[in-house]
Design brief:
single chain; 207 residues; alpha+beta; Nucleoside Triphosphate Pyrophosphohydrolase; six-stranded mixed β-sheet; three-stranded antiparallel β-sheet; 9 strands; 28% strand; globular
Length: 207
């Protein structure tokens, strides 16, 4: 993927810095997007890299002058074969990574699955990485990411990064499922809750 892209406007400071910036290194800049995508069951999309034994979120580098929204849709289609709708909350978390001579900014977005009937279109490198996608419950995805022991430095970076991003995207999941269960337990209609949702939360995917 390309290393330069149009940055999103009014973006906050990085939420997490991974590794340390070295003062005398001339870093190559790379911009990337990640997506926490939910299906109708509240499961999240994850990608497993069998060769290096790690789990990741769908996403990758942005092309030159490519808008983040376009990049997120493209990456989700390439890695999962899925069509998604981005949530209106915008970028929910950022990481800044320093790996050798690379400085990578990753911008994370939340989305809802629209159609998963398509097939992935993996690159040659992704095929060699033995990527395979699946849908997991949020807690299951976190456990799988945390338990995996990557065999490469890159895999260890990805593990730390994507665990942070997934946590940031789902930090309110327990609270909102409790509200949903209360609403259902009271015999109320789903619309009772959906009328009060904001741009970040919806009835079936309250994350």
């Amino acid at each position: 993927m390309a290393r330069n892209a149009t940055p999103p406007p009014k973006m906050a400071a990085p939420s997490k810095v991974i590794d340390t910036k070295q003062p005398h290194v001339m870093y190559v800049e790379r911009s990337a997007v990640r997506v926490v995508a939910f299906n109708s069951a509240g499961e999240v999309a994850v990608v497993y890299a069998a060769r290096d034994n790690y789990y990741k979120l769908p996403g990758g580098g942005t092309d030159p002058d490519e808008e983040h929204e376009t990049a997120v849709h493209r990456e989700m289609k390439e890695e999962m074969g899925g069509l998604i709708k981005l949530r209106e909350a915008g970028c929910i978390a950022i990481t800044e990574e320093y790996r050798n001579d690379l400085r990578q900014m990753s911008y994370c977005y939340c989305a809802d699955l629209v159609d998963d009937s398509g097939a992935p279109a993996l690159t040659k490198d992704e095929v060699q990485d033995e990527l395979a996608h699946s849908w997991m419950a949020v807690d299951e995805a976190k456990r799988a990411m945390a338990a995996a022991e990557p065999t490469t430095e890159l895999g260890r970076f990805i593990k730390e990064r994507d665990l942070f991003l997934l946590d940031a995207a789902t930090k309110d999941v327990g609270k909102w499922w409790s509200i949903i269960n209360w609403v259902l337990g009271c015999g109320l209609e789903p619309e009772t809750l959906s009328r009060h949702h904001n741009n970040r939360f919806s009835y079936w995917n309250p994350f």
